[in-house]
Structures are given as C-alpha cells and as structure tokens.
C-alpha cells in the first residue's frame, strides 16, 4: 500500500530524508479522507499484521488501518522512501530528472540519490524475510510510491530501469501480491 495523500504531496516537495520525514509531513486532510473511504469499502483480506515505513505519512496511514482492525504495528525502516539526496526539499517536478537517469542506469547516484538497484535490494529483502518467517499470513506493507514501483518491477522480473513504465501508484492505493512472489536475485 502506498501511504495516503501527504503534506509533502500537497506542498509538492521532495521529502525523503529521515531527518525530515520521520517527524514531519504526515497525512493531509485529503489523505485522511482517502483512508476513511478506503476503510469503508475494504474488500481485501484483513491483514494479520502491518509493517510500515517509519516516516510520518506512512506511520499515520498504518495507524488508521491498524486502529480500524485492532492490529499492532511494526515499523520497518527498509520500507522507507527512496532517498533523493541533494534534491531533498526541492519541488517534486525534480523527480523527472532522476527517473530519466534511472531509465539509462538503475545503478546511478546522480545528486546523491539512492539507486534503483539499492532500493530494489532492500525492498526484496523485506519480502524474502516475510516469506520465510510469516508464510501464509496476510501482511499489509505501507510504503512510498517510488520504492513500491521499484519493488513491483523487480517482483515482475522486469528490468529495474523500466520501473517508471508501470502506472504510478495513487496515494492510499493497494496492490495485492501473490502469496509467494518470486524474489529474483538479479535486477
């Protein structure tokens, strides 16, 4: 699940560092309303557990869902936003520059950005660990748009340089994964 619409989305700024993302830029009013609607029409399996990025916007998203179903939460730092280096705090139209570089080289670190290869590795590690330790459980992962796009691309076995070819995930959207996704080693 991608977090609900956030204050960073509302303000059009890149918030990817723990220094700013952990304490600030939680859900916007629109994001809270999205989650209220989502919970009122919930049609997915009720999760057995919820793991979430420890950024404020993902924590608030997970808290609302956990409260609705009476579940405990587990923060998982590997589900954090992709770090966008020196673009932190810049306008979100700067994402396009990074994504263009991603399509040429998924291992790049332009402007100190965390590479697509690195994001895929940490996200796949979470999935692999969950499959080993919690096989058969329904687990809701609450993360961010770019890491989830990259994870889905990796799990589909597609080239990581093509992660932006997937339809962008909307705030508060849920994408079910198969019960035992392939976790390929390459990317």
From TrEMBL:
It comes from the Bacteria. InterPro entries: His_Pase_superF_clade-1 (IPR013078), His_PPase_superfam (IPR029033). It holds the Pfam family His_Phos_1. Coiled coil: none annotated. Residues 169-187 have a biased composition (Low complexity). Residues 162-187 are annotated as: Disordered. This is Histidine phosphatase family protein. It comes from Halomonas icarae.
């Amino acid at each position: 699940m991608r977090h609900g619409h956030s204050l960073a989305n509302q303000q059009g700024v890149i918030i990817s560092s723990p220094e700013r993302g952990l304490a600030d830029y939680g859900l916007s009013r629109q994001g809270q309303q999205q989650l209220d609607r989502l919970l009122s029409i919930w049609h997915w399996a009720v999760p057995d557990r919820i793991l979430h990025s420890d950024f404020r916007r993902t924590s608030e998203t997970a808290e609302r869902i956990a409260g609705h179903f009476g579940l405990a939460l587990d923060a998982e730092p590997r589900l954090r936003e992709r770090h966008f280096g020196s673009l932190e705090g810049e306008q979100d139209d700067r994402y396009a520059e990074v994504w263009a570089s991603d399509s040429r080289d998924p291992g790049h670190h332009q402007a100190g950005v965390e590479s697509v290869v690195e994001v895929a590795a940490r996200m796949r590690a979470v999935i692999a660990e969950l499959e080993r330790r919690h096989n058969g459980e329904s687990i809701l992962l609450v993360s961010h748009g770019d890491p989830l796009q990259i994870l889905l691309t990796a799990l589909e076995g597609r080239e990581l340089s093509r992660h932006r070819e997937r339809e962008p995930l909307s705030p508060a959207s849920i994408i079910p994964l198969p019960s035992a996704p392939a976790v390929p080693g390459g990317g």
